[in-house]
Amino acid sequence: MLSSCAAVRGLQLFTWRSLSTSTCVQGAHTKDVATSSIDCSEPQYNDRMDTPLPDIPYVPKFNAEQSKLKEKEKEPWTQLTKEEKLALYRLSHRQTFAEMKKGSSVWKTVVGGLFFFLGFTGLMIWWQRVFVFGKPPHTLSEEWVAMQTQRMIDMRVNPVLGFSSEWNYNTKQWKK
């Protein structure tokens, strides 16, 4: 029994492992770019400020033009043009530090969503007050509350520590 359970468990781990490592992320460009696995068991490409040198280059497979450029890279760099140097950099890295530091406009979406939900909540509260809730009961009117308070004082409700203990029955005023 133990060996069959172990075999089933091993099969489950094997299938989970194959599912978790088979997912790859394709870059936004049309060329072949570095992929990223889920479990970090393989070298990955990352654009991060704290790790400026990724494990693998951004473009792992070169076409004919890129191969010629890589061969030209072995020669003195004074012979390379500015565009060639930039192309060589883009083979290894997707973004420059300036591009990584540049802020995004995601905050505008977040603030817009926040205002949308606040407005929707306000509309729901207004709708409930107008169409769902009825008029307040007559027992909440000022006249009724005054009559109820007077009745409680007349009945001497809770005279030791409660409501009536704050009323002076001689002067017929609240104690100060």
UniProtKB/TrEMBL annotation:
Q: Which SUPFAM superfamilies match?
A: Mitochondrial cytochrome c oxidase subunit IV
User: Gene3D superfamilies this protein is in?
Assistant: Cytochrome c oxidase subunit IV
| Subcellular location as annotated | Mitochondrion inner membrane
Q: How does it sit in the membrane?
A: Single-pass membrane protein
Please name the InterPro entries in this protein's record: Cyt_c_oxidase_su4, Cyt_c_oxidase_su4_fam, Cyt_c_oxidase_su4_sf
Q: Which Pfam families match?
A: COX4
Does the entry feature the keyword Transmembrane, yes or no? yes
Question: Which keywords fit this entry according to its UniProt record?
Answer: Membrane, Mitochondrion, Mitochondrion inner membrane, Transmembrane, Transmembrane helix
Q: Keyword Lipoprotein, does the record have it?
A: no
> Membrane-spanning regions, if any?
106-127
Q: In which pathway does it act?
A: Energy metabolism; oxidative phosphorylation
Subunit info here reads:
Component of the cytochrome c oxidase (complex IV, CIV), a multisubunit enzyme composed of 14 subunits.
Give the family per the record. Answer: Belongs to the cytochrome c oxidase IV family.
Record function comment: Component of the cytochrome c oxidase, the last enzyme in the mitochondrial electron transport chain which drives oxidative phosphorylation.
Per its record, how is this protein called by name?
Cytochrome c oxidase subunit 4
According to its UniProt entry, this protein's organism is: Huso huso (Beluga)
